[in-house]
Amino acid sequence: MRCLVATLLLVSACAPLGAPGPAALPQRSLGDAGPRGLPFAADWRIRALARELTRRARTDFQKLTCLMAYFRRMDFSRSYSRLGTLTASQALSTGGGNCLAYANLFVAMARAAGLDARFAALRAEHRQLEPSGGLLVDWGHLAVQVRLRDRVLVVDFDGRTQPIRLYEPVSDQRAAAEYYNNLGYELARTPGHGMAAPEVAEAFRRAVAVQPDFAWAWNNLGVALARAGRGDEAERAYHMAASADPALAAPHANLGLLHLRQGRSAHAVEAFERALERKPDCKAYRVFLERARKADRWQRNAETAPAADDAPLRQGAPGSEDPA
Fold this sequence. Notes:
By secondary structure, the protein is of the alpha+beta class. The chain is built from eleven helices and eight strands. The strands form two sheets. It has a five-stranded antiparallel beta sheet with strand order 7-6-5-2-8. The chain has a three-stranded mixed beta sheet with strand order 1-4-3. A hairpin with a 2-residue loop joins strand 3 and strand 4. Helix 8 runs antiparallel to helix 9, helix 9 runs antiparallel to helix 10 and helix 9 packs parallel to helix 11. The chain is elongated and about 90 Å long.
């Protein structure tokens, strides 16, 4: 019995804003992480631009206002690309990218101007789960948190502030891991690659190397390994994801899908039940659980059916070949 189901993938990337992507983005590779290996490091152009934009500012708030005005003038939403994970330098050169690319650029410019700028992620309850290319993708959003003397502001890539209650701070380590995590997904969507391509798994491996407790990247590594036919390694990656974030449902659902493909339907049922315990409103998980239960019933019935060695498989002469 074979069940054809979508694979689940959790990726922290930008949610769509309805704007078209740029005509072309630079070719990305694992060697493009920017100066000092950090995608948000400021090169000489970014430092010069930040100094020029803030040269008349006297306070941190005035500096931030100058940077926000620049982002509004650039109107990056026009060149937004959901699959445009870029370094700060690449985002400045092309004007294109997604929220992570623009956050990289804003953080680099703000720090070059002497501001206390950090990454901020949209809280989990506001994220989106959508089908995309045979996967279920968890789309998030990154912005920038700037700490001033008397307040903290969250700035989006359109140069406008966002309600701080919707966001949570993200460390530099996590932001760098997010870069590799997103890059892995985007490499998988590149023609000639696919989730099974070795460089896709390598990108996710780099993400967990940067931050070993990055549950989403462990989950995505498991998806890539499963697509490459490396089931045992995929199972270990899913267990690492579940251990890193016990509340995360996706690795349990992915384990269920893996067990189904391996013919371990009883284990699949248990895995999908764990996924639903963590995300009870997910309709896809319920569909998968019902498929697993049907497969388990079929398997149990087949195991308990009486042997019929002497019964012919079909009408016809003994030893005749099946024309089908």
